[in-house]
Amino acid sequence: MRRISASFLQAAVVLIGIGSLALMLWEPHIEGRNAHATTFEIYFKDPFLAYVYVGSIPFFVALYRASGLFGHARKMGWSRR
């Protein structure tokens, strides 16, 4: 894998992680039943959100591991020959 490809893929993984985290934090505020709720009501009175956040931990761990893998590939400078 070329260094530029590894850097591009690592940046893509980081952007996917930032985008998904932003979506997870922003979406409950615009959801239909939470549109006029306070922040406390949104996050502490809806157990479904807790399940979603706990369930997303493996996704973010996988993104972290993929970012580390691409970082390692970039350092090693693997190339196809």
Q: Give me the number of helical elements.
A: 4
Proportion of residues in extended strands: under 5%
What's the domain count?
Answer: 1
Runs with pLDDT <50, length 5+?
A: none
Biggest β-sheet, characterized? none
What Rg is obtained from the alpha carbons, in whole angstroms? 18 Å
| Global morphology | elongated
SSE-based structural type: mainly alpha
* End-to-end Cα distance: 10 Å
Count of beta strands:
0
User: Level of helix content?
Assistant: over 70%
**Mean model confidence by pLDDT:** 86
- State the order of secondary-structure elements, H for helix, E for strand: HHHH
What does this structure look like?
The protein has 81 residues and is an all-alpha fold. It has one domain (3-76). It has 4 helices and no strands. The chain has helices spanning 3-30, 39-44, 47-55, 57-76. α1 packs antiparallel against α4 (57-76). 4% of the residues are buried.
Brief overview:
With 81 residues, the protein is mainly alpha-helical. 78% of the residues lie in helices and 0% in strands.
Write the layout of secondary structure elements.
Elements: H1 3-30, H2 39-44, H3 47-55, H4 57-76
Helix pairs in contact: 1-4
Features:
81 residues, mainly alpha, 4 helices
